[in-house]
Amino acid sequence: MSDDLINNPFLWYSLVAVFLLVIGWRIFERRWDSRIFDKDRKGVFKNLHAKAALFAYDHVKGLVPVDVRSYKEFEQGHIPGAINATVKDSRVEAGPLEGLDREVPVLVYCEGGYASRKTVELLKEMGVHTIYHIHRGFKSWQFYGGAVESGAAEGA
Prior knowledge:
Elements: H1 2-6, H2 9-36, E1 44-48, H3 50-59, E2 64-67, H4 71-76, E3 83-84, E4 87-88, E5 91-92, E6 106-109, H5 114-125, E7 130-134, H6 137-143
Parallel strand pairs: 1-7, 2-3, 2-6, 6-7
Antiparallel strand pairs: 4-5
């Protein structure tokens, strides 16, 4: 049985394909991040691992979490104190962010890190000067034991 697996070319081709896809994604992600989180731009734009995001949440004065997931996902669980500003058609729902001071640091996240990466550019265009992004999103936050609350946002 094990000789059949070892000598199976389909298995080897599949393993190589998966390996190349993982490496390819990592390269793509790094290049994308280097454009979004460029150090030469005016302001602070950082892509934080969940552990660093947990630290920032506890220690950065005035930090406001911005959840760009759907309202339904937000209700099921979000970072305490988060504003739900859903992303639709590559635009951030501006209403929830209208009263936000552009000088206040934000911690933006989505479920897995893809939509919130796109949101970083939109927040920059809105004039937000300090943006922290949770690498791998809310799932990563939960995995590392980040605080979570459920229910609707205040005033919603």
